Amino acid sequence: MTFKLGPLPVLALALTVLLLSACSPAPAAPTTDLAPTETVIARRAVATYRAGVAAAATTTPEPTFTPIPTWTPRSTTTPRPPNTPLPTSTPLATPTSLPDQAIYLKMDLKGKILFWTTDRLWKQGPRVYVMEPDGSTQVPLSNDVLLDTLIYNYYVDRETRTADGQWKLYVEDSGPGQTGIVIRSTAGEKVRRVVSGSSVNYEPAWSPDTMWVTFVSQRDGNDEIYVIDTNGQTPMRRTSNTWEWDRHPSWSADGRKIAFWSNREGGHKQIWAMNADGTDQKNLSNNGYDDWDPVWVK
Fold first, then answer.
1. Which residue ranges make up each domain of the chain?
2. Once rounded to an integer, what is the mean pLDDT over residues 154-163?
3. Cys-Cys with 292: which of 69, 202, 234, 261 at CB 3.0–4.6 Å?
């Protein structure tokens, strides 16, 4: 016998099936063969791996580079105020000129050192010699003693004059046993005192740039060489001895060295040279004669 269901019974049957499917229990979780301890270790390994992946994925920005500050050299000296320039002057006198016979020697002598010497030539008095700035080639200036003297005196006079001939250094008495150094125009007008007369001060010489004056002073007990600027600020001592003399300073043409004579070795006079700051003092004569009063030709 065949049963046939109407539409309503079929619809009711379908709803029943759907309801039973929704209320049935969820499928059981897949089983594992790991023991409880092994499971914990595995979970930790996975967590560690995932943390490492996350850390690698995060980029840590590099620190910002801070540039090293530029090094500024430290000044080793306190700059001194600039020298007061000399006023303009119209000279009424001109420096002594070279003898006509000596003009041809002028270029040949530039940069060399003139000086007096004795005992070199048998039975002859003092003579003017010339040598290279390193002390080599010490020879008579010429065979004419009178001409040599005129040439030497010309360059000695130039030591106390500015290059333009307008100003001259003078040594003036300032009391018993005291002399100072002043600047005057060639007309005789006094400009300023460079070295006070609190002691014996003498033999001044201009530096080539006329910013400095070197001179000899007995302010410390014996004859020593000093340097001072033309404003007359504190003199700076350049030589130091117990009793020996250092005298007659003369600047080199570039203003970097000073020649002078000293009797510090063996008691006889020798020509020496040093840097303008007093360092590297050397005996240029280096002989057994007496050599004195050098003039560095400029």
1. 106-159+250-298, 166-237
2. 94
3. 261
